[in-house]
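== Item description ==
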Amino acid sequence: MENQYDLSGYVDRLYSAAVKKARDTYIAEDITQETLLAACSQLARGKQPHNLWAWLLTILSNKYCDWLREKYNRPQVSFEEYPFEIAEENKPQDDSAKMLEAVLRELGYLARIHREVMVLFYLHSHSVDQIAEELGIPSGTVKSRLSIGRQHIRKGVNSMENHTKQSYEPDILQIACSGKEGLRREPFSLVPSSDRLAQSILIQAYQKPLTEVELARSLGVPAAFVEPVVEKLTQGELMQRTHGGKVYTDFILFTYKDRKATFEEQLSTVETHFQLFWEKTAKALEELREKPWCLRQSQHARAKLELYFCLKLLANVQASVLEHCVGSLPYSEYPYRKDGGRWIALGMLFSGEISSQPDDAFWKYSVNGEMGYAEKNFRDTKYLELRSYGTSLGKWPDYEAVPSYVKWFYELWEKVPSGEWVSDPHILQDTDSLTLQGFLKQEKELELDIPAISLTEYGELCGLASAYVPKVTSRVQEVLLPLFESGYVRLPSHLKSVPKGQQYMFCCCSIPMAVILQAKEKGLLLKGVDYPVPAALLILEKN
């Protein structure tokens, strides 16, 4: 009997297991020593473990939990007393700590109503009556929830993981919208580029409604982390609940495949019918070039103004043909949002990192929709706004930083000494990037390198574009209609709130840049331009 329970041969193995857990040799030594002392004490009292190594690992795990509780105020979990019957084939043979980890993992996947009673009962050692009093529910309800919780944990431990691709190779969701954003820049602020969990939840709940627990399991994330994000997204009106309590993503998501659906046909259409697109566009461009506020711009700034104008004109032509196909959605029908905005969201899906997207011809012809950010009563201005399209000729500025950019750009345009800037000083770190993108130039001093025009002059620009939209549309409508008939995106059957026009918005999305790049190639636009050309302008009105 004495030889059977000789612990000397287990010291090194226990120490290795402790190092693996604690990742600290000094702490591992303490845990190992405490484990051996506890084991010797129990053996001296007559303890006869069936599997000595598994029993020692159990003690080690509990001593490690003791240490965690002391350091992080974590409650102790005693594996030996865990009342779950786990299938024999899934019981670890040489490391009972794995079972503890599995149980705790499954505890994290429980819905809140079951998770909270399980935590109070098993981790905090509260009685059924105590839990009933704390939660304000009958004791029978506590017992029922404990029973259901144990069933879910047992089932989870005994089954394979049910994680989806989004849990280990997540896609990226980029939010966009039409209309007026909210007071805190909703919907963009609801799903920032850094919040991969919110993105993954929206992606996962798009094809069909899911419970928070189903979302948690599919993403491999504890339900406690999923629930507050879902609450934020439902409060922010990006998600909705069914009558049964499930949640779903309440806006359209576009894939790379959706955006490319008619790409080749679009290029072919422009190549064949270029003159139909360009004849009236060129007339509008001639009128633009005669405007005094165009003539006063520098060479670089004028090129950016011309590109912005052409994109605005051609994008409105595209919208006009779309309206002919599916009707219009007047702004009066945009829903009022709780956040003070009036917007309709949409999302773009990207595989992996956005920067790693395939550098193929499609992205050369891609256009990010027009962005605008306004600021009132800054310095001596009544109104200040930055407007921009993103194209392959000039990158789109970081949207999250635009509120800082617009103030800084005005100070640069006004040649305010750097010591008197009131814009965010951290913006200086973007100087090199914005210079490379063509928004700034640095010669003797840092200067703004995009056009700056007054609010009245911007109204003239928009009026000129609007005057030519029907002229261009009448020439190209017939050749564009087949693209709209074949390239629309089909929605999940449960999604009813998406405006019909959004299903068709990428049917001709490459047309504007296809026309512009052909015009550039023919020397009709941006002739001799070999520098970045962001389609951007600063609009201002002084007091």
Residues 166-250 form a domain with the Arc Repressor Mutant, subunit A fold (CATH 1.10.10.10). The radius of gyration is 32 Å. DSSP finds 21 helices and eleven strands in the chain. The longest strand covers residues 171-180.
